[in-house]
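Final report, closing paragraph on structural work. Over the funding period we assembled a curated collection of sequence-structure pairs, and we close with a single example.
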Amino acid sequence: MRSQSLRYLQRNRGLVGFLVLLTSTVPWVRAGAQATSERPYYDRVNSFGIISAYSPDSSHIILGVAENRKLWSFGVSYSRRLWASPRAIWHYDGELLPFALEGDPLTREIIHQTSPKVVTTVLDGGPGVSCAPVTGSFAFTDPNGVVYSGTVDAFCHGRQWTFGQAVSPLGLQWNFLPHRKIQPLFTAHVGYMYSTKPIPVSFAGSFNFTFDFGPGIEFYRTATRSFRAEYRYHHISNHNSASENPGIDNGLFQLAFVFGR
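Its predicted structure, as stored:
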């Protein structure tokens, strides 16, 4: 039997050599398949974030006109990868902000009456649209012929904080250069905010619409954990659903710790 097997192998040297070559290349093929299946970039299919945002001031950036408004918020986010390529990754991104504070500057008027006698009166009022100091004078005569005159100084003094909650269910995020640990990104969101009092002035609304957009940087510590730093243009307004709608434009700084898989 052994002699027959040897004679068979001698007659079929080519077939035996092919089988040896095939069996020797299988591990390399398997290793190549594993290499191509590895993740070629830093990203997650599903990710969750803990976010905190702050803005020290507001001004007329694009739409809003209410000045010197502060904004601070804390909440969570959820992202889902929608599309990926070697150059960019596109995510759905939603945010829930159960804790939000909006700070409106209060107004103060100091009336310096000089006639018929010297009197100084201080009047504190609610939030005003502008914080630019205003100085004026007055003079009038009452029905008895007494002339009243003096000056009025109006300016911002103190701050009123209003608690609210915000949700941005519509959002997108684009990460660029996903094969690197440090990735530039761009985000945009649309949502709403409900506050316990009207903002940013007394005759505005407690229910406001919000939207934001802006660039940022994401730093990956591992393949599943990262930190994000962003700067956004953030707008709040009631879309003319109340008596007044000055709107708020904030430059918002946001930090996030993100994890997922």
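Helices lie at 2-11, 13-37. Residues 106-158 form one domain. We thank the funder for supporting this effort.
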